[in-house]
## 1
Amino acid sequence: GPTGSGKTTTLYATLDKLNTGTQKIITVEDPVEYQLPGVTQVQVNSAIGLTFASGLRSIVRQDPDIILIGEIRDQETADIASESALTGHLVFSTLHTNDAAGAVSRLIDMGVEPYLISASLLAVQAQRLVRRICPNCAAEHPLQEEEALALNLSRNGLPVIKRGSGCDNCGGTGYRGRIGLYELMPFTPAIRRLVNSGADVDEIREQAVTEGMITLRQDALEKLKLGITTPEEVIRVTSARH
């Protein structure tokens, strides 16, 4: 996902869940945003030559069970991350892509070999943040025709939605807080075969959806139907393809 989509929060929450005290967890980050008890965290410092790649090389020598790389920015880091995964380490990281399938093309564009991607990746999760409707001033409204068209929805299938009218609790915005949208693409045997064969992003995405992947747009529409967010937010952060 893009900057500000909650990727770091998700990674930290995942590490917190896995941090039972029985596994060695090491991170390399730029910057270290939160201190995690029981986790060794390394801050990238390019001025002294400590990059993601060099930090990762040093980390692997310490034989960790779990590795977190704040962001994969180049081929060197991506290759080391892939090799670490193939040698028994559980590796987490982030990429700037539009959706889950886009991570594959991003890694290939960096120069990572398709066979390395298909062999080392377990899953890719894309995410976005949408604003929550303020529960204090939420009220039902009919779905407008132009909104239904933009979202490719039948007005009959979704006759009412919710919006916040604005109150003191939300500063008059109608929104209070945010919630994540998630698109999880497991690397199934079929997905691995497509990656190995050089399939494009659309083919990979189509296969993932066929196998049950919920797209960002589908997750957003579900939260719209539940009265959690608005059509404007769904349109703002997702597209019909994602």
Note: The mean pLDDT is 94.
## 2
Amino acid sequence: MPAKFLKILFYITAPLLLIVVISMTLLFTYDWNQARPFINRTVSSSIGRDFAVRGDLKIQLISGSQTESGWERYLTTLPILRISADDVQISNPSWSHVGAQMASARRVVVLLKPFALLSKEAIVTELDLDTPLVVLERRADGSNSWSLPDNGPSTWAVQIQRLAFADGNMRYVDYGINLDLHARATSVAGDALAAPDQTKNALTAQQFGLQFILGGTYHHAAISGSGKLGSVLTLENKSTVFPIQADMQIGANKIAFNGVITDPRAPSGINVELTLGGTSLAALYPLTGVLLPETAAYKTRGRLLGQKEHANWNWTYQNFIGTVGASDLAGTLQYVYRLPRPLLRGAVTSNQLRLDDLGPIIGADSNEHKIARGEAPIQPDGKALPVEQFHTAQWGALDADVKFSGKHLIRTHDIPLDNIVTDIHLENKVLSLAPLYFGLAGGDVTSNIVLDGRKPAIDAQIKMAARNLQLRELFPTLQSMKASFGEINGDAALTGHGNSVSAMLASSNGELVATMSQGSVSRYILEAAGLNVANVLFVKMFGDKQVRLNCLVSDFAVNAGVAGVRHFVIDTDDAIVNITGEVDLSRELLNLDVRPNTKGMRIFSLRSPLYAKGSFEHPDVGPYKGPLVLRATAAIALAALSPPAAALASVNLGTTPIIDCPAELNKALRTRSAPKSEPTASPAGRVSNKEIQKSREEK
């Protein structure tokens, strides 16, 4: 029985073995170059464009895996099928404008497992490209040259474990983003350059095997650069890392990175040291899609971490340091993909923040600085308020939640600021700084600002609270104010419409109220305001004494961009000063009258009303000449009759009414407690005492 069974088994298997032997003999002895026309036609028909193997075509059976080195290759005893083809070409679609060929190579070598083919699996252990040329093109409508016709679901599975390539060229043209990038790669002699070592938790990164040179244009800006990368992509293990290093310039932006890509077959992680530099952070928007403000020239360095979740990437620029203008920056920012908009979040700190470097954010930098950034000058001569437009169309690119703090402000215009803290929020094109806190003149100013960019013109609203501003620190360069003291407190609410600071203020409405009590002020300042010539001379000769300041109340109502004085009075032991008039924020004009009334008798007082007129850019402050000339003329006429009589024209008897400071302050406090302005769809919240206290603690 056993002999009969073996005999039957032999009759069954012998023909099969014979077929296998004959097939293998034909496979490796057949001149496959004779089959090239058939192969070319079949592949061309399948992919819908011309495919051609124009050189020698060979198929061999080799032992051991050619993808392993040393003793490891002998552990693999199963045979490997080696297919080599010379001069391989794949054409571009007919609509292409970048040449006839999409891809070509001097030689293509494919190593695959033959027995896996029986189960319709093409397991390519190595794909080796010699001198490849790849030209990829993407049209503005999103269609591209590398997508092949859909011939329905395939019953075959393809797996590529390793990809190796030597010298080659690549070009990528994308009309949607106006990019034309080309790169040339050449082998690094000896493969001697070491790769980065920051991936100790993964497999050891291979050495650099290729060096490349970049060129091209992006939005008509020149691209140039160079770098290095590995020559072999190991695609079998998810922990595989692929080294890459580059240093390039795109227009005014300089970019350098050095690190690794995890799992190159479907990149899931990136870990590189990234250095950025350029004329303005805003110039990064076309490159990154991250909305950043206009700034002075910048340079940063930090670690860029990329993590892929499903089909989307999350990015972290970790522990970066750098400069913007003369200011330093440090922090961490995260770009998180989410719907309906990605989120930018993090914290940025500046230890030395120069005020001039904040100017471009609101368009307040000079035309000279704009020219230095390669931008056309915008600010008209004689215009003080910034006219540069906010580009709200980009505000919908992402949401933001970023905390910014400037610990020490470097002043360039004698503005007594000392620090700044703000929470920046952007959601659905509504930008808010809530709160925005900065130290001013020994006190602090806390604001809630909302800019709603959902309409063609921004709806802007600010609510502000100023607390404990020191009188003498408001005028740090004025010697006569050194000994003055007193605290100013104020509140304001303004609403405006427009896409620049100038337009917002020109259309603004609201209220501004400030008060001060229990202070003192320089007698010289007071006497100069009253033009008491004799006392001014006396003070100059014998010293300046302080005069008690009983109260100050300043109350403005803003309507259609005109800030009118509702009530403005300063009461001291020696004088009362009343101010009337208006400030036109639209035309940037001053029109204020300052009328000092001295208490008691002043000898040689040529007291006359003062004015503050002119433009913001060129203000004109001084005494009204008419009353002063009449008073001086009267003194001269009386002197002709009797010298003692001339003094009568220069004596102020002081009949000024008494000011009830407690009543004035209480009335102003009621307005300060809830200043009003036009409502908006995205209102700014009233500044609370809790916000003020929190901001003080965070500074």
Note: Residues 16-145+155-176 form one domain.
